[in-house]
Sequence to fold (238 residues):
Amino acid sequence: MRTRVVAVANQKGGVGKTTTAVNVAACVAAMGKRVLLFDLDPQANATSGLGLEKVEGASAYRPLLGEGALAKKIQKTAWERLEIIPSELDMCGADIEIARLENHVQRVKLALKPVVDSGRFDVIVIDCPPSLGTLTLNAFTAADSLLVPLQCEYYALEGISIITRLLNQLRDTGVNPGLHIIGVVMTMFDGRTRLSQQVVDEVRQHFGDVVFDTVIPRATRLAEAPSFGQPIIYYDKY
Ligand code: ATP
Ligand code: MG
Fold:
């Protein structure tokens, strides 16, 4: 089976991208697939969420600039079949430096190609930063599909229309003709408020089947898990 590359993206901050990326990656690995979590965000939340320290020189930064193989940055985690390309602060510079290079939207795609072609992973999950900068554009170019977390709040719909527009541009210009949204996941659903349900209803009206049936509740355990460096299925088994 061909390696599938899924980018978890939303330009809005704090909507649940990293929580989704870390936990989807861990769950898919637990189901028996070989998974690579690629932390493309200088905040490195996915890296610490899987219990790794931020280590200077450990990120994709240099390979993205064309220095060295990205495969050398892949590290094992505490869990079977789950590996990671960690991030750290130097990725802050990547956004600007990559923008100055040739093929500047293809950098992640080109660096990932040998990893994809090797067939070493079934799925590569990319955790994107909260912006539509060069790194996110690179993720959109490298990905087969986008997984879009939307927080159950008033501005959710505006966020997704920006992503949809960018996706259409990448498709229409031929940069990534096959790119599609694999699903929209509603996050931080609060059953005590009417707003959460209203937002879910409205998003479903607009986007129909592409919205996952499963809605992620607001849950303290989910917010705590990263500080223990564990995906939720290990931090809170029941
Ligand atoms: P950024 O844009 O900064 O990268 P993000 O979109 O990756 O943020 P997360 O880091 O996943 O978002 O989540 C933002 C905050 O909300 C974190 O503190 C996280 O632990 C918390 N959080 C995420 N999902 C839930 C949830 N379902 N219930 C409670 N807290 C949550
Ligand atoms: Mg994040």
Observations:
- Residues 13-19, 41, 43, 45, 130, 187-188, 216, 218-219, 222-223, 226 surround adenosine-5'-triphosphate (ligand 1) (CB under 6 Å).
